[in-house]
């Protein structure tokens, strides 16, 4: 291990400790980590602070402003009242219904869709506080549900990568059952449902509003935008969502549509400039942008490839297939989160696991399927897009966050490994 690797790991650990102890305001530790990465020569300024020019961050910042505008509309007023009524009838039932609805909706977008989880968490952030269903109970469960389609029919991205890594490793396998691969994803989603039902008890029962709001006063919020402004806000919101969804087809222009929509919101006076500025510069944006720089710096040191080679050598050629796949799933998911490059990390670890399986005379399809999917299932470290947003919007302390995410992490990977082996016997 080189000196830059050691320093980069030390800075990352220091950042996590600062987040855990809350010695600095939310969003500040990653910025400090980026400064230290440059100071110690781990990376240059452009790479360290590249997160602030990252297309996803620009899209997210703009979308935060649009969601703030949406909160002034009667539609959100109705949504809040509906959630409040659901909570008053039964908090746990409302909790289940919320994350199931999100999982059904995610079936359209597919696993790990940035557009969908940003949209979901943005809407969840508008939920008013009620002591029967506090936002602390909702944000994490429904937020992570955006990564788990309950009807996994849109799995073409991950499926294509499975075929690619099998080919790259020289396995000779050119065809994998798409139906079976979808069932592996379904098993993973069902495991999340099981954990979400159990996890309700560990999520904090607290108010996580941005400011202290009197419960009676919050119920009397008036939504009095002129009809034309309200309709324009809806149009801007829809345009932003469509732009995010179509980004893969239209390129960078898709990322710019939320920004243009936010400009429209400003131009018609739904939000003033101070409100726009406060939302696009929110702590969650600083956190998300900062961790991208840290992740890029870690990746540039060559840490990912070194870890992969070391683990492959340690496992050797005489190991239980379940343990082999599970270990590589852990490595892939953790380092995908740390480096910020899911597909890149998958392409490093999946061929190693496939080669190991082939040396043991085993069919490597299960390993390929599980390891590819695991790249989108880290989330116990709040230094990637979705977990950072969940922690920021939910205002969870790191210990509260880990009480939910660490068990979730292991339950999902165990189910994923078992499901892959069940559908693709070795």
TrEMBL record:
Keywords: Membrane, Repeat, Transmembrane, Transmembrane helix, Transport. The chain crosses the membrane at residues 6-24, 31-49, 55-73, 94-119, 157-176, 183-203, 253-273, 285-307, 319-350, 362-381, 401-424. It comes from the Bacteria. It is a multi-pass membrane protein. Coiled coil: none annotated. Residues 16-371 form the Citrate transporter-like domain. The keyword Lipoprotein does not apply. It is found in: Membrane. The keyword Transport applies. InterPro entries: Cit_transptr-like_dom, DASS-Related_Transporters. It holds the Pfam family CitMHS. One of its GO terms (biological process) is transmembrane transport. GO terms for cellular component: plasma membrane. This is Membrane transport protein. It comes from Lacrimispora celerecrescens. The lineage of its organism: Bacteria, Bacillati, Bacillota, Clostridia, Lachnospirales.
